[in-house]
Every structure is written in structure tokens, then in C-alpha cells.
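Continuing the series of single-chain predictions for the mutant panel. This is the parent chain; the variants come on the following pages.
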Amino acid sequence: MPDFALYRPLLAEPRFRNQALAGFFAQLTQGGTVLALILLVQQARGSLGLAGAVAAGFVVGAAIARPIQGRLIDTRGPRRVLIVIAVAQTVALLALVPTVKSDLPGIVPVLMSLIAGLGLPPVSQVQRLVWAGLAGEDRTTVYSVIGMIQEGSILAGPLLVGVLAGVASPSAALIVVAVVSGGGLFWLGLLVPDLRATSEEDRHTGGLLREPAIRLVLLLEFLFGVALSGIEIGVPALATSEGHPSTAGFLLAVTSVGGIAGGLLYGGRRWASPPRIRLALLLALSTIGFAVLVPVDSLILAGAVLIVLGMVLTPVITTLIVLLDLASPRLLAEAFGWSSTSSAIGTGGGAAVVGVLAQHHGAGPAFAIGAAGCALALMVALAARGLPRTGQPASHG
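Parent structure:
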């Protein structure tokens, strides 16, 4: 059973609840924007291909921006960075509505979407920095809470978009998500302390990617991102093959619910084992979970497996962040940014390959790619000697 007393330092922090709520609202764009863009482009332009390109532009922009945002947070402090990003992304998303509805060439909304993606809120990066001081040497509990907030936003965003698109329009859905997320991020920027910026020496020292341990963790993030693409593509493929494509959203929501439950349980334990050992066990369980999904052709059975698999996936992400924390002696927000970029590249690249396989062979190969990604990450984690075993996390100033 989890020890919920481990969550008391967070709950006792006066500003935690407001910061958590602001972060939840700010991250609605992570799950909701892509769906809103796809629905808007399909309605206004009638092109699924263009819709996919616009959605991809948003994801690519976010992947490019994460390390840059992290460096700015490290060097200038989070407050002003969050406020500027809040205004910029809100304006960019609102501008997408008339752009998509216009007669401008398709490349224009794609580029505008990429610009909007550059402003995807770096909420988790900031929360890790601000709340890390509430934990001891093992920040598993704190990072689990951050993961649960993010999962909640990813779950709520598409639901909000779906409801608003149904009762009003995709334009209204995108506008509401943009305004609510921008307001949440602006609020968070006002709430967080303006942490001491990094020293001049750190600013001009060689890049983080020169650190072998960091590169190793980022490789694991990439491989796990490939595995996650198996769910992103495999679940809709399975739902479509069974004649109920609309259930894909429900199955993905079930996976997020499992992720929230898994984060709660994982963060509510005092772990004696080092994070690298926990990561190996979690990757082994993830490999098994994906492998079980390969032959499944029942949506009910798939839902049962996905909720259990989700309970493992969130702890994997949390443990990777803990390892990155241990490996990063400085510029931690930038390191977290590279983490998001590495995972996004893995997920995006994996989705491109998995999509082709699923189109011709169904959901089974998609889930098989997920199992292969986890298995390969497991082999790397077991064979590599550069992963931090234990030790004092990086100082956050």
C-alpha cells in the first residue's frame, strides 16, 4: 500500500495547490490542441493530409523549443519566461483560426502551427525545479505528482475539445483551450518564485549533451518514446479494425487513468532500490504489457490491459526523470527540455513507421513495436554502465 504521508510536504506547502491547479490548466494544450487543430482543418479545408501536417507542425515546434525554453528558465528564471510564453502561444493559437479558414496556401497554417508549438508551456520543467526542494534525496514522489498533473491535463484536454467541438465548433474548441491554457500559464508565472539564475560560469560551460550519463538517459527517453508510439497508433488501429473507431478516445483515456493511478502508487512508496534497478524492472513489465496486446482483438480486453499498462508507463517516465536529475549537475531545466525533445522525436519517428505497418497489417505490429522499444531500452539500461546508481540530486539553486 502507498504511504500517502509522503505527499504531505507538498500538500502542506501553501502555494502548492494554486501552482498545481494553474499547471493543470496550462497543460490542456498538450492533449487538446492537436485534436482541435485536426478537427478545425478537416472542417475548414476538408483535407486529412493537411490536418496531419498542421498537427505535426505543432509537435515539431514543441520538440525544437523545449531545450531553448529550459535554457531560458535556467538563465533568466521561470517567472518572466512563463509569462512571455503564455502571451505568445495564446496569440499564435488564436491566429490559427482565421489562418486555417482563409484561402492561404496550406504551408501557411503549417508554419503558424509550428510557431504555436514553440510556445507549448514548459510546465513540468518549472514544477520540477520549484518543487524539488520539498523532497529529499529521492524525488520520486515529487516527480510522480508532476506526472499525475500532466496525465490529468492530457486526459481532460481532448475531452474538453470533443465536447466543445460537438456543441459549438472546432474553432470554439481551439479558442477556449488557447485562452484557458494561456491564462493558466500566466497565473503559474505569477505564482512561482523567480529562482536564482545559473552562474555565468555555467552559462558558458560546454553543453549538457557532452555529459555521457545525460546522453544515455536521453537515448532511453528516445527508445521509450518509440514504444509510446505503439499506443498512439495501435489503439486507433485496433478500434477501427473492430468497427468502433470512436472507442479509441475512450481506450486512450483509460490508459491515462491507469497512468494517474500508477503515479499515485509509485510516488507513495519509499524505495530502497536505486532508480536504475527500478527502471529495469518497469521496462520489463512494460515489454510484457505491450506483448500481451499484440494478439488482442477484443476492445474490452484491450481496455483492461491498457489500464494496467498505463500504471507502469507513468512510473517509467518518472524514473527516467529521476535519473536525469541525478545525471545533471547544472542547467536542469534545459536537461528536462532535452528529455521532452528526445521523447517527442522517438514518438514522432516511431509513429511514422508504426503508421505504415498498422495501415497494412493492423494493430498487432504497432504493439509489437512498443514491446520492441521497451525491450531495447531494457537491454541498454542493463548493459550501460553510465547510468547514475544513486546519489545526491543536482542542486536547483
